[in-house]
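Q: How do we represent a protein-ligand complex in a form that can be generated token by token?
A: Start from the inputs.
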Amino acid sequence: MSAPVPHLAVDDLVAGYVPDVPILRGMTLSVATGEIVTVLGPNGAGKSTLVKAVAGLVPARSGEIRVKGGSIRGLATHRLVAAGVAYVPQTENVFTRLSVEENLELGGLSAPAEVRARMAEMYALFPDLARLRRLAAGRLSGGQRQMVAVARALMARPHLIMLDEPSAGLSPKLTEMVFQKLEEVRRTGVTLLVVEQNARAALAISDRGYVLAEGRQRFTGTARELLSSPEVGELYLGTRTRLAS
Amino acid sequence: MMQVIADGLVAASFITLGVVGLSMIYNILNFPTFAQGDHIAVGAYFALGVVALAGTAGSVAGLSFGWPLILGLFCAAVLTAVVALALDRAIFAQLRRRDASRISLIMASFGVALMLRYMIVMAAGHDPHYYAFAITPALNLGGVRIQPNELISIAVTVAMVVGLHLFLTRTWLGRSMRAVSENPTLARVNGIDVGRVVRWTWIIGAGMAAVAGVLLGVVVQIHPFMGFELLLPMFAALIVGGMTNIYGAVLGAVLIGLAEALTIRYLAPEYRQAVSFIAVFVVLMVRPQGILGEKP
Ligand SMILES: Nc1ncnc2c1ncn2[C@@H]1O[C@H](COP(=O)(O)OP(=O)(O)OP(=O)(O)O)[C@@H](O)[C@H]1O
Ligand SMILES: [Mg+2]
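Then emit the structure tokens for the protein with magnesium ion bound:
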């Protein structure tokens, strides 16, 4: 029996912002259908570049990117949604001048007929947003904004969602809330790839993880293995004391 | 006083129709195009061509023009949009692909502006033209004297601004435009084809400029520098109202139009051009981002 086709497979990917300066230098990663996979790594390791390359925002120089077995390398970013892949950038991930509702509507651009029904589902998943629907997204708090960003991405009914540091700048309580929501999202049948600095919170909901350093995969294993690996803890997850706290 | 307001609103209507496109292009393509003035002139001359072919058949309801000009208006809007699209493809798209700086794009638009202006001179000469020579009696609306043609200009402008507002808030393409103007990367991530939005921005911006040109030709006259002369008040409106806000541009146009009318009435017509400079100067001193603009 052959191994099941991974949902997302990144194979020996070389990518960078300018020619001859590769940021990713042969990154390999795979995410199985229904999994939550976390990518960890020090600042500047290339974590954001990895998800941007999958999203078609950074050109891939060599290697492959496959979604459900089909190559998406070189696909124009605006066609990603139609391929069932959503992406929540690390920064500037909501339209600040548009209202919460308009942000969600834009997320549902690919299926206008479904927008109403889908929006109701999003308000059920994020009840706070229903109350704030008329407000410009730029006036929301960091946690509320992050919810708008995730809801916006989910509007198109993606089967894979990539989130770049969804807990950046959030209090521990809000971080916990965001990850709880991500677990709920997974239960609706969505596969998740999460880039995080907050290793403990992310690995707590993840099946597996990768540690990315200098553009390559440094370690990989189950969430439990990564959490208990002293080497990983010391080098890439912050100090061991922080992990144990 | 009411007369000054009426005169100001007439002047504002031409500025508005031009500056709305200027603002959209600035916000979506990230540079202010100096060719927008000449889109106005190009539109006026396209309509002149249609009128010349179709003849100046009878006037409609007390106006100085007839159905050939109405046909000319539509043709002008479409043809000017086509010209703008072709120029984008030939020039600006190439520069964007090479990640050209904003200043390169502005300089290129300057070149395009000169090219359009002198193509008009070559095709139609320096002399002014008119769509028709019929003299229409001015209406007297409660002591305010206004030409039917001027009233039409204001009405068309109001209708187009309201239409544009509905387009931007109610349609998918309009919302996509607002999304791209704020954050093109996030717009692409959302599935918005930025290339398509850019094309529609030129179509709407140049199309509205053409309408401004035809109306200006009807109310005043047609000459090769008619659009270039509107460039200063348009940029003034953009800066006064706020570069990042299309409604600010409309507000700016109304203020500049009124200020021009006040100057002509109480100072002297020669000072008209100075109004734009003074308005820009005052706004830059007091509120650099413009009245409705956001702080960068
Ligand atoms: N737009 C860009 N143009 C050129 N180089 C960039 C760009 N963005 C990032 N880089 C470089 O690419 C490298 C990897 O950056 P990346 O943003 O992928 O790191 P990261 O792992 O996401 O870090 P962080 O944890 O700080 O978010 C860094 O050296 C960075 O300087
Ligand atoms: Mg990053």
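The longest strand of chain A covers residues 8-15. The radius of gyration of chain A is 18 Å.
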